[in-house]
Amino acid sequence: MAAELTKRYAIVTGANKGIGLDICRQLVSQCIIVVLTTRDEKKGLEAIEKLKGSVVSGCVIFHQRHATDLASIASLAQFIKSQFGKLDILV
């Protein structure tokens, strides 16, 4: 139970390339569980594939999110609440 309490969770938006992708890589290297989000599902899943060689399995999760779509934002918030119960970092 103590290990569960010390886990940290992050969302990185626009994380399919560049700085966002590198931030994901750096966060998981610090044992932070990352939800990688993008508008485009295909690009998000490709980003997860790029990270597979450098991260522990299960430390990066993809969730599609459109910044201007309230239903998409609510879906992500519900996912975080139900899966983790908290969020520590938002990038």
From TrEMBL:
Keywords: NADP, Oxidoreductase. The keyword NADP applies. It comes from the Eukaryota. The keyword Mitochondrion does not apply. This is Short-chain dehydrogenase/reductase. It holds the Pfam family adh_short. Belongs to the short-chain dehydrogenases/reductases (SDR) family. It comes from Rehmannia glutinosa (Chinese foxglove). InterPro entries: NAD(P)-bd_dom_sf, SDR_fam.
